[in-house]
Amino acid sequence: xxxxxxxxxxxxxxxxxxxxxxxxxxxxxxxxxxxxxxxxxxxxxxxxxxxxxxxxxxxxxxxxxxxxxxxxxxxxxxxxxxxxxxxxxxxxxxxxxxxxxxxxxxxxxxxxxxxxxxxxxxxxxxxxxxxxxxxxxxxxxxxxxxxxxxxxxxxxxxxxxxxxxxxxxxxxxxxxxxxxxxxxxxxxxxxxxxxxxxxxxxxxxxxxxxxxxxxxxxxxxxxxxxxx
Length: 228
Hints:
The protein is mostly helical. It folds into three domains: about 80 residues, Arc Repressor Mutant, subunit A (Orthogonal Bundle); about 70 residues, Orthogonal Bundle (Arc Repressor Mutant, subunit A), CATH 1.10.10; about 40 residues. It is about 45% helix and about 5% strand. The protein is built from seven helices and five strands, in the order αβααββαααββα. It has a three-stranded antiparallel sheet with strand order 1-3-2. The chain has a two-stranded antiparallel sheet with strand order 4-5.
């Protein structure tokens, strides 16, 4: 996946997707309506305070990327905007209704647990239970044209791991792997931890052995050059 969006770009796209689903009679959105949606105090994290000039600049960038389209026409006195990000005739990115709801909520609220996603995304698409959300997250993590989400490492004291979208670049260092099952407690058992430690020790031993071999070769070369 070669899509990389800023926070403001994901906020604009997320708002357009949300309003297309929840208030189709008011969609596409005018610049004023889109600005209000971006700065909304509920269903947003972080809460932003963008002015129309800033939102217009973000929209202009997304238009150049072919992710947003300006709609005009007869009877419309102000320009209105709609997304072309996914599920349109203009691109190849396609999501199921449940996948779209999850991606939209991750755009609007940032990293969330499956339970939080079920609660927040229910206004966009119905989920029977948390397991259904986890299944959708697994699909998004394993898609051939993705991955689109990843599971973050569990925070201390938390029972569930959070998931984050990957449309703003790859994460380094704090991911856990969205398609790997967790144990009932969310932690690896003693046997699993021992196997992991043994594997890492074996890798380190192999690296040390390789370095020692390289050092021995270099020593032989230096001695050979010195004897000439």
